[in-house]
């Protein structure tokens, strides 16, 4: 037997289609249309400064372009989010500069009423659209640029630490910092509660040492709770790494452990937040997921299979055999579902590897060549 090297041709990634679904695009369009409507009402009904006569139509035009681009599935939603956020920041920072450096002092405080509250809202929007990690650079840029404008104003000839405008901008920045800290704390608390609800509290040694995933005991308990809560739509997928014995002989035990950790990371990156991934055995992972029906659950497992096969490690394309048990007459409790999924994963390996079996039915998808020949 010999190892096939990783090929340069890979299947197209499936994550983008999931991330940029039509429902997500439609939700973004509705939100931006509301924002565009608010800007048009602002321009039509309220007095505008010399700055707003130029800047507001430019911002409205940018948002209209983004709304139109959301109809094109080839344009990533994340790119449109960044475009909207950067355009909004350009407007707010330019407006802040105009108020501090171009308006006379008696008019500054009144003008800040129109711009000040939107800075915290825009900072909050970073987390809503870009996520916890992706929002950090834009947070730093936005707050840093606002702070730099305030510092330039205070140190300038017309500025003063005690001026009402400086005090208002300082309070705006402090409120923004508190908002960001509160958002971060809320996100971390929510993630902690999700993990606690999923895994339970006080679990002894509830994590696998190699992958950091929940171990078999934790998964079995979580699966049992899910069956008691709502068995309908619940699926259990056992993912078995193919050719572990042959790989251990040819590459060593250390490589097979690295490969299992690699497959675990690849699989985890393709799952939703509500799915549970755990390690069942040394060469098996298990996924607990919910789907509208067995067909949708099987399609999700097929995407996982293709994703793993397209992520080589040290010149080797790993493949997995997946056994799927979906709630029904034979999967009436957690133990039966886990047993049947494990049996199907084993049978998928015996019938040729790199395939998905659901209730005894082999996958008909075009599977790439197996790891070993």
From TrEMBL:
InterPro entries: Diguanylate_Cyclase, GGDEF_dom, Nucleotide_cyclase, Rev_trsase/Diguanyl_cyclase. GO terms for biological process: cell adhesion involved in single-species biofilm formation; negative regulation of bacterial-type flagellum-dependent cell motility. One of its GO terms (molecular function) is diguanylate cyclase activity. Keywords: Membrane, Transmembrane, Transmembrane helix. Residues 232-361 form the GGDEF domain. The chain crosses the membrane at residues 31-48, 54-70, 82-101, 107-128, 140-159, 165-187. The keyword Thylakoid does not apply. This is GGDEF domain-containing protein. It comes from Deinococcus indicus.
